[in-house]
Design a protein that fits this description.
Mean pLDDT: 93
Low-confidence stretches: none
Distance between the termini: 34 Å
Structural class: alpha/beta
Number of domains: 3
CATH class of the largest domain: Alpha Beta
Largest sheet: 8 strands, antiparallel
Number of strands: 27
CATH architecture of the largest domain: 4-Layer Sandwich
Radius of gyration: 24 Å
Oligomer: single chain
CATH topology of the largest domain: Glutamine Phosphoribosylpyrophosphate, subunit 1, domain 1
Number of helices: 20
Bound molecules: 6-O-phosphono-alpha-D-glucopyranose
């Protein structure tokens, strides 16, 4: 994840940009850069490493100008060098970008053919050249920006600065957050409200597909359809916590909506989009070509491991055993000779998971931690680590940490597949491309919010709810049931769809809603039969599926929640979004404490 700031101001911009970047450093610190307009011309300063390096660079070679943009980078495409640092610029425009441009390769090739010279390995640089191309064709800045943004696929937040345009700054949001700060004769853009907080307390949060066209005295918002739109102005006089919730009512809702960004950040940490390959850090002796693997966690982290079990077996052909940490540690588990253990934990402090890790280490098993909190105990004690880059998760019910775990584990499955010779370069490219599309697909899946809200209203009256799924969506059904239990206190159970007839079918009646997680994949027809079994017994079906699935389900479902069509590999990530929203809105309708549900703790450090 990267941090973005833009200032259309009346005072020297460079020091103010640096001040804002200091607040954004938590989002990444591989490199930093600023660009300002000096006499109408774009001037840049960039430096690899921490912000202090940029500050030194600016002390030696100061930048004048009162309008500018800045960026802190968490390297995704391309190493953290000065050339790859943002802003990226032509003579006519400079941009800073947070997110992934999925179609950067074809755009880059097209622009190179048209004579553009690229100076970095980033996906972001195509944005600057694409806008320049439209400016060269005579479009004014606003039209050039809109035309360019329309051609970008992926998830992004962008700020744009135009040469000769000292009264215009443009921002665009799709999937990655962007806020507009409203000043007195000044305007600002920032990745979050904290970025603009030194300058103003009045903030608007852009919505999906919005473009903000700022002048010193006006902020025009165009929605995804190009229509002028109004966005609520929030006034933040209080502390960072209030600021942090942004447009959202609860942290959980905010965290659900952060997932296009947090999955993007985690995925791009492990894939080289340029070569379409997975790149794992040094795993310190963990042999990915091992004969078997075990995956251990608790709660939601355990379910992430259960999805990874399907991936590792299907992609890498490696036998995998998954278990709940509290069971594993006391059952005297046996290990294969050449095996490794994966320990999944948001907090990195869960007592049972930590004890299981220590047990494995005592038994000379190499250990790999998939952990969200850096320097936590599990992080430190494991032989190697694959960080999940979800950022701090405040809501007790885990959402963005779960999909970040899935993101890292998906990359791991590809890496193991390659290490074991189970997939060739072509298949690796295909899987990497599918992963790169995931943040955008999650953003698309979140568009079902209004329907999900309406269904949740009905679900909030249920006493019991069943969740069904097959294959890698069986753990997603388990996770869906867990989310609902945790925050709405409605009893819910997840079952493998094929297991329905072996018991749970006795529970089916018109009062027991059945949520089915069923993308139109190779197992869909089987799950459809299970839906028919529910329907035949008067059960109410809430089916989460794509357009092809919806066409087959027809009217046996009481409700359909539409998800985007996607590669079956990444479907568990995409289908996580609607099951989270369903639990969230059910709890909101019931009026329970969404962020701090009764009896639960975010991190359980006791047995
Ligand atoms: C607690 C939390 C769950 C979480 C589990 C594992 O029970 O309430 O949301 O899934 O612990 O936590 P970890 O930090 O190890 O992922």
């Amino acid at each position: 994840m990267c941090g973005i700031i833009g200032i259309l101001g009346n005072a020297p911009a460079a020091p103010r940009l640096v001040e804002a970047l200091r607040r954004l450093e938590y989002r990444g610190y591989d490199s930093a850069g600023v660009a300002t307009l000096e006499g109408g011309q774009i001037r840049r300063r960039r430096a690899a490493g921490k912000l202090a390096n940029l500050e030194r660079e600016l002390a030696e070679r100061p930048l004048a100008g009162s309008t500018g943009i800045g960026h802190t980078r968490w390297a995704t495409h391309g190493a953290p060098t000065t050339d790859n640092a943002h802003p990226h610029a032509s003579e006519k425009v400079a941009i800073v970008h947070n997110g992934i441009i999925e179609n950067f390769r074809p755009l880059r090739e097209e622009l190179i053919r048209a004579g553009h010279k690229f100076a970095s390995e980033t996906d972001s640089e195509v944005i600057a050249h694409l806008i320049t191309d439209y400016l060269d064709k005579g479009k004014p800045p606003e039209d050039a920006a809109i035309a360019a943004v329309r051609r970008l696929e992926g998830a992004f937040g962008i700020a744009m600065l135009f040469a000769g345009g000292d009264d215009i700054l443009i921002g665009a949001r799709k999937g990655s957050p962007l806020a507009v700060g409203l000043g007195d004769g000044e305007m600002y853009l920032g990745s979050d409200a904290i970025a603009v907080s030194p300058f103003t307390t009045r903030v608007m949060f852009l919505e999906e597909g919005d473009i903000a066209v700022l002048t010193h005295n006006s902020a025009k918002i165009l929605d995804a359809g190009g229509q002028a739109a109004e966005r609520q102005v929030h006034v933040f006089a209080g502390g960072a916590a209030a600021v942090e919730k942004g447009n959202h009512r609860h942290f959980m809702q905010k965290e659900i909506y952060e997932q296009p960004e947090t999955t993007g950040r985690t995925i791009t940490r492990y894939v080289n989009a340029y070569d379409e390959r997975v790149e794992m850090p040094d795993l310190d002796g963990v042999d990915l070509a091992a004969d078997s693997a075990i995956i251990i966690g608790c709660g939601t982290a355990h379910y992430a491991g259960r999805v990874a079990e399907y991936w590792l077996e299907q992609i890498a052909g490696v036998p995998v055993e998954t278990d709940i940490a509290s069971e594993f540690r006391y059952r005297k588990p046996a290990f294969g000779k050449n095996s490794f253990g994966v320990f999944v934990s948001q907090s990195g402090e869960t007592a049972d998971t930590l004890a299981a890790l220590r047990y494995c280490k005592e038994n000379k098993l190499k250990t790999l931690a998939v952990v969200n909190v850096p320097e936590s105990t599990i992080w430190r004690e494991a032989d190697a680590r694959l960080p999940t880059l979800a950022g701090p998760e405040i809501g007790v019910a885990s959402t963005k940490a779960f999909t970040a775990q899935l993101s890292a584990l998906a990359a791991l499955a590809i890496a193991v597949g390659r290490a074991r010779g189970a997939i060739d370069a072509k298949e690796e490219s295909r899987l990497v491309r599918a992963l790169m599309e995931t943040p955008r697909l999650i953003a698309d899946a979140l568009h079902a919010e209004p329907e999900i809200d309406a269904i949740a209203q009905e679900l909030s009256h249920a006493r019991d709810v069943l969740y069904l799924g097959r294959g890698a969506h069986y753990p997603i059904a388990l996770e869906g049931a867990l989310k609902l239990k945790e925050i709405s206190y409605i009893h819910a159970e997840g079952y493998a769809a094929g297991e329905l007839k072996h018991g749970p079918i006795a529970l089916i009646d018109e009062a027991t809603p059945v949520v089915v997680v069923a993308p139109h994949d190779a197992l869909f027809e089987k799950t459809l039969s299970n839906m028919q079994e529910v329907n035949a017994r008067g059960g109410r079906l809430i089916v989460i599926t794509d357009a092809a699935g919806a066409a087959e389900v027809g009217d046996i479902a009481s409700h359909i929640i539409l998800a985007p069509a996607c590669d079956p590999f990444v479907a568990p990530l995409v289908y996580s979004a609607p099951i989270q929203l369903l639990a969230y809105f059910t709890a909101v309708h019931k009026g329970t404490d969404v962020d701090q549900p009764r009896n639960l703790a975010k991190s359980v450090t006791v047995e």
